[in-house]
Amino acid sequence: MRTGLVKKIHLSATTVAALLFSSCASVSVKDVVRLEPNPPSRLPEKVFVAPFTFTQNELRVDRGGDSLKTFQFGLQEFMTKNLVRRLPKYVAPAKAVASTAPLPQGNFWLIRGNFDRVYQGSRFLRAVVGLGSGATLMETTVVVYELSGPKPKPFLRIVTTGGSNISPGILGVATFFISGPSALTSLLNAVDGARSGITFDTIRTTRELNAALSEYLYQRGTIPYKKAAGPKRIGKFPNRIGLPDRVKMHGTLTVEPLPPEPVAGKTPAQPGGNAEHPPAG
After folding, report:
1. E strands, 150-280, where?
2. Terminal CA-CA length for the chain
3. Which long-range contacts (CB under 8 A, 24 or more apart) does 272-279 make?
4. In angstroms, rounded to a whole number, what is the distance separating the alpha carbons of residues 24 and 45?
5. Cα dihedral 232→233→237→239 (10° resolution)
6. H helix or E strand, kind and range, residue 78
């Protein structure tokens, strides 16, 4: 009987933990794409962060005119400041630069990004009703460039997506005797809904971008596993760090554009290998 009770308690705790995890607002890394076969494999001396641009018809906020311009500028500044603050932990010292500023040449990186979608939603509806009502959404596309040559050379693209979840709001507390443990998350969701919004989506986005860059450096053999971070990916838990490039991962890492198809009867020389087919050993 005692064993059965322990199993029931364990099941209930697991269920509640799963509900809590699934209810939280979050941002995930949707895609990471290598843009060249042999991207940088050493730590940059510094990372420069340019202001993010906007996809105007996907910017849905309760502002217009000068107020909208102020909002956009504030969001750009907040994204840049958070990235500059986070990048030194896993990547390198960072500095904000204007989009038109002259860039140095050397062992430096440049981050440029775009807000693909920004939906402000409704804080009141998220907190009270939930279930997707008043949901926020932030999606970004970030391209990382190396500055070792005369022109910035893109080598990595990261796509993120996320926002508030579809869990119930404070009204779900009233269903406690019907829905059981799931109603316990409603109160937490109401608090999370009240404190969620574009500001928190931006913070979460910079955290995942930093983790994705950290994972890239580990895969390239630049930093050890213990100093790397794993980005959150859609539908996957816990956050896991991808395998290093030295492990043969045919079809796992994507290089874009893809190398040209070999000519019949000829075997192209591959002295250095590439991200899809690393050299043996």
Report:
1. 153-163
2. 56
3. 272/38, 274/37, 274/38, 275/34, 275/37, 275/38, 275/39, 275/245, 276/37, 276/250, 276/251, 277/248, 277/250, 278/245, 278/246, 278/248
4. 36
5. -40
6. helix 65-90
Is-contact 231 86, C-beta < 8 A?
no
Whether the pLDDT of residue 148 is over 50: the answer is: yes
CB atoms within 10 A of CB 195: 13
How far is Cα 162 from Cα 146, in angstroms, rounded to an integer? 27
CA angle 240, 37, 151 (to 5 degrees): 110
- Domains of the chain, residue spans: 23-227
Question: 160 with 101: CB under 8 angstroms?
Answer: no
Of 19-23, 52-56, 126-130, which one has max mean pLDDT?
Answer: 52-56
Helices (H), 129-197: 176-179, 184-195
pLDDT at site 280: 44
For residue 108, which of 35, 32, 49, 34 has the smallest C-alpha distance?
49
Burial 225-241 (b: 16+ CB within 10 A, else e): eeebbbbbbeeeeeeee
Q: What is the average pLDDT across 75-81?
A: 97
- Two tokens at 18? 């799963």
Tell me which CATH code domain 23-227 carries. 3.40.50
The DSSP code sequence of 138-152 is EEEEEEEEE-SSSS-
